[in-house]
Amino acid sequence: MGIGFVGSFGGLERARSGRKVERKRKVSVTMVLSDFLGAAGEYPIVPSPVAPVFPRGDPLVVDTSVKVEEVDGIRGLVVTKDVEKGDLLASLKRSEVISVERKFSRGSPLEEEAERVLFLRRSFWGEELRVVGDWRLRLALKLLIETRTNTELLPYFALLPKETGVPVFWNRTEVTELQHFELQKRILRQKVQWETICELIMQNSSALDVREVLWAMDIVRSRAFSGEFQQRSSLVATFAACWTAGLALPLLSNVNTDLSLAGTVLFIAGILVTEASGKRARRRGFLAPIADMMNHFSGATTGLTYDAFSDSFQVRAGEKIKKGSEVLFDYNEKGYSRPNDELLQYYGFVNEENKTRTYLICDTLNQFFDEKRFGVPRRRIRELKVTKKRLKRRSVDGGGVVLSIDVDGKASFNDRFINLVKKLEPSRTRRRQLVAHICRRELEQMPTTIEEDRIIRSNLRSQRPPNPRKLLAVNYRIENKRLLMEAAEYFLRNDNES
Q1: Which residues form a coiled coil (predicted)?
Q2: Measured between alpha carbons, how far is 308 from 230 in angstroms, rounded to an integer?
C-alpha cells in the first residue's frame, strides 16, 4: 500500500503536480515496474473482494418477459416467452437505478450520504482529483450506501457476483501466464491504482472494510452503464401537455382560427421545451438491476434506453428471441469495439470470436531497430534513436504499436508506426519483411507455442473443478498467438501492403 500513482479506472494517468497525499511510504512507478520485470521488491497484491452478506428474499421481478438463470454455467438473462423485435423485456423505475453524475463537483449529496452511512470524512473529497473525480469510484461508494439503506434492492444485491475473476486480483504467477508484457504492465498499474484508492478510503473511514470496497469497485467496473438522462421534472409534463394541445387544437379550428393559432404556438413551445429539457440532461454512470445481467455478444442489437415520459429505463428486444433463449447485449460503445485485452482486464472473459482483434507490441522494438540485424545506414542512426525514443514514450503512456486484423483477415499496424517505419525503410518489400519479423519475434519470446497451449487448455478443461484463471490465461494467449501467426503470414503473402 502507499504507492504514489493514482488515476481513473478507465485511463492510466499520473497525478498532477501540486499537493501530495500523505502516505506511509512512497514508491515510484519506475520502481514498481522494475519489481514487475524481476528486480528485487514486493509485487503488489490486491486482496480478493468480499461481498456483503444479503438475506435471500423474494426474487427480483421487473417484468414477466425475462428471468435470471444459469446459461452454460454463467448467470444470464433469459426470455420466458417468444418476443418480437421492439418488444419491452424489462422496465426499471428511476428509483431502482443507482447512479451518479460523471462530472465531479464538491458539495454533492453523495458527500453527505457517505459521511452519514459510511462514516467517510468530508476530507476525503479534498484528496487527489484523479481519485475522487472518477465517477466509477463514486458509484462504488454509492453502491455501498445503497446496500446499507435500500431494502427494496436486496434481491438485486444478492444476485451480484462475489467476484468477477478479473486479473487485478490475480497473483504475480497468474498474471505472468498471460505471456503479454504490455497487458501485464496495465494490470500492474491498475493494482497500484486500486491500492491507492483503498488506502485513501481507509484513512478517511473507520467503518469500511477494504475487501468490501474492492467488491464494489469490481462490480461497478464490470457492470456499470453510462449515458445522458435526468430525473423526471415538471418539464416532462409541460412539453407533453404542449404537444398534446398543439396537435388537438387545430382539429377544433374549423370555425375558430384563434384555436388554430394557439395550437401552432403550443406545438412550437413543446419543441422548444423538449430541446431545453434535453440540454439539461447530464451524463451519468449507473447500475441498472436486471439489465446488467445481460452477457456480451458482439453485434447484439438489444439495448437499454431511458424514457423521459415514464421516467424509466427500458430493455427492448433488438430482434426476435425464442422462449428460453438468452438476451445478449453488446458491451462495445458506438464507434469503439473492445479488444480482448480490455474484455479480460475489466470484464473477466475472453471473446474467441471477437471482431476486434488487436495486439499491442512494444517489447520487441529494440530487435526491430537493431542496426546489425536490419542494416540501417549510419546516416540514419540519429533518426533511428529518435524513433525508438518516441515509440518507447508512447508505450509508457499506454499507446504503443498496435497490430490489428479486421474481419476480412487484413492485418495492419497503426498509421503512426507505419509512417515512422517508412522513413527508415523506403522499400515496400523490406518493410513487409520487417513487420512480419516483429510478429515472429513476438511469438519466439513467448514461453510456450500455440500447440502446447492447446494441449494445456484441453487438460485444464478435463480437470474437476477447472482452474478458471489458468483457463482464461491460456485462452487469451492462444488468441494472441493465432493473431500474430496470421499477421506474419499476411504481410509476407501480400506484396502491396505496409
Answers
A1: none
A2: 8
90 touches 62 (CB < 8 A): yes
In sequence order, the β-bridge partners of residue 401 are: 361
Quote the CA–CA distance of 200 and 178 in Å, as a whole number.
30
Angle between helical axes of 135-149 and 109-117 (0-180°, round to 10): 50
For residue 357, what are the β-bridge partners?
A: 405
Q: Using an 8 Å Cβ cutoff, are 159 and 153 in contact?
A: no
C-alpha grid cell, residue 476 = 487469451
Torsion of CA 276, 278, 281, 285, to 10 degrees: 180
User: What DSSP line would sit under 109-139, residue for residue?
Assistant: HHHHHHHHHS---GGGGGS-HHHHT-HHHHH
Phi, psi (degrees; rounded to nearest 5) at 6: -130, 165
Cell numbers for 62: 421487473
Contact 474, 457 (CB under 8 A): yes
Peptide bond into 465 cis (omega under 30): yes
Q: Residue 75: in which H helix or E strand, if any?
A: strand 74-79
pLDDT in tens, 31-67: 333 444 443 345 666 777 777 766 655 555 555 688 8
- The three grid cell numbers given for residue 1, joined into one nine-digit string: 500500500
Q: How far does the chain reach from its first CA to its final CA, in angstroms?
A: 46
pTM of structure = 0.77
Alpha carbon distance 426, 445 (integer Å):
28
- The tens digit of pLDDT for each residue in 389-421 reads 555 555 444 446 788 888 788 888 877 777 777
- Residues present in the chain in total: 498
Mean pLDDT along residues 454-475: 92
Which residue from 322, 396, 335 is spatially nearest to 365, judged by alpha carbons?
396
By three-state DSSP, how is residue 456 classified? helix
Distance CA 274, CA 235 (A): 8
Distance CA 197, CA 217 (A): 10
Which residues, in sequence order, are bridge partners of residue 79? Answer: 66
SS3 helix, strand, coil % of the chain, rounded to 5? 50, 15, 35
Contact yes or no for 210/199 (Cβ under 8 A): no
**Set of cell numbers at residue 233:** 421534472
**Residue 174 near residue 470 (C-beta atoms within 8 A):** yes
Q: Are 68 and 61 in contact (CB under 8 A)?
A: no
Is-contact 189 8, C-beta < 8 A?
Answer: no
Cell representation of residue 264: 401552432
Q: Give residues with Cβ within 8 angstroms of 393, minimum separation 6.
A: none
Rounded-to-integer distance, Cα 429 and Cα 409, Å: 20
